[in-house]
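Morning run. Coffee first, then this:
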Amino acid sequence: MTVWLSALCMGFTACGDKENTEDNNYAKVIAGTYKGNLLMGGAPIGENTEITITRDDDNHATLKMNKEVMTLPVNIACKTDVTFVGNQYRISGNTTFEMGEGVSVPVTVNGTIDGAGKATININVEVPNIGPLAVVFDGQR
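And here it is:
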């Protein structure tokens, strides 16, 4: 568990309002701060978590999370693509972070944000010698 949490130390953000979908400025619509919980296997591992999404351009945003989870600092920053499919905004991106001692681990972020600002964001971390760890952020703007 400690190795996983160390691996998650990167940071990410997510936020947004539903507006301006006609001109495809999706990142502007979802930009903001989301508050919720981190879950692993359905169990809470990080209550009162904040994720922030900032607009980079119309279809790209940066997701950040800075949170202490089980006494370990978790700081994630991930550049994401932003699309609008059906009635939801979708974000997806890849990044890496340093676990320490020169070990860099891949992180994949995928999620949805609905028009009411409900965000479900999957954070998948590939931890050496352990394998994939899936964390879910469930929150609201």
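The two ends are 29 Å apart (CA to CA). Good start to the day.
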